Amino acid sequence: MLTFTIRRLILSIPTLLFISLVIFLLLQLAPGDPMAQVPLTVPPEVKEKMREALGLGQPIHIQYLKWIIQFFWIEPQVLVDHWFGTSFAEGKQRVISWQTRSPVMDIVVQRIPQTLWVVGLSYVVGILIALPIGIYSAYRQYSVFDQTGTFITMIGFSIPPFFTGPLLIVLFSVQLGWLPSIYDTTHVVTDWESFKVQFMQMVMPVMVLALQTTAQLSRYMRSSMLDNLGQDYVRTARAKGLKEGVVVMVHVLRNSMIPVITVIALGVPAIFGGAIITENVFKVNGIGQLLLTALFANDIPMVMTLTFIFAILIVLFNLIADVLYGVLDPRIRYD
Predict the structure, then answer these.
(1) Final residue in a domain of this structure, among 84, 112, 135
(2) Is residue 50 located within the same domain as residue 185?
(3) Less packed terminus of the chain by CB within 10 Å, N or C?
(4) Residue 24 sits in which domain range?
């Protein structure tokens, strides 16, 4: 297992480099000019100096190599300096946002906690709800509970967040006045009262995102459980006199979790990517809103850094899912 993990990590390096090159070339081909937002009163020679300061006047391959060095060499040094108080990155050029003229990673670090609070919690809530629903729906196939769960998951798949979000705002904020419609990112939790305020403003965005997660994972869990409930080893376990709870919750569940683990692991990078639509509906100042703002502003360093971070997370959690296969199923070996 260790050899397999090391080999996959080594092979992921050229994969990520190729992905970064593709992302960079696609963004370079995108229309738009970062200087378009500069006021018309700024003289042309000043605009030209601004373009040179942002590295826009350099050849494409020089810009790409510069970004690679900044992302893989300088930014880790900045992190080490922050942790240990060293000065390895002092005076070195970091990845700079064209829109804010500030280091990209500093902005990302500021936005991540808001995204993890909302999107991360909704993902955990969705998993905790979906797995029991999927297990019980499969065990009680075609029952009232199963049919009700199927109906609710169809709704979760069919209704997009840009509809459920405003619908919840109209219902719980405008009509009933129970919950705030805007997420206050400046709110700080210091006591019980401030915690209740934080909890109330998180309810609606978490509900919207958890509905989609629950709808997806519960269907996967139900289908995987049904496939395993009809296997020979289940009949053998029952014939040996094992309790029904042990058969279902130990033998069947462990094998059924193998494909579900893939779905869960591949969904984790989406947490760090934020929920673009939901974050904008509820004004959550997170990574999703940051990416959308950067796209509108043609902020290539910001967009490239964020998309490449997502690519790293996807490759990493693919590896984690493969390793978990061997943990859940002893028959799987990576020799």
Answers:
(1) 84
(2) no
(3) C
(4) 2-84
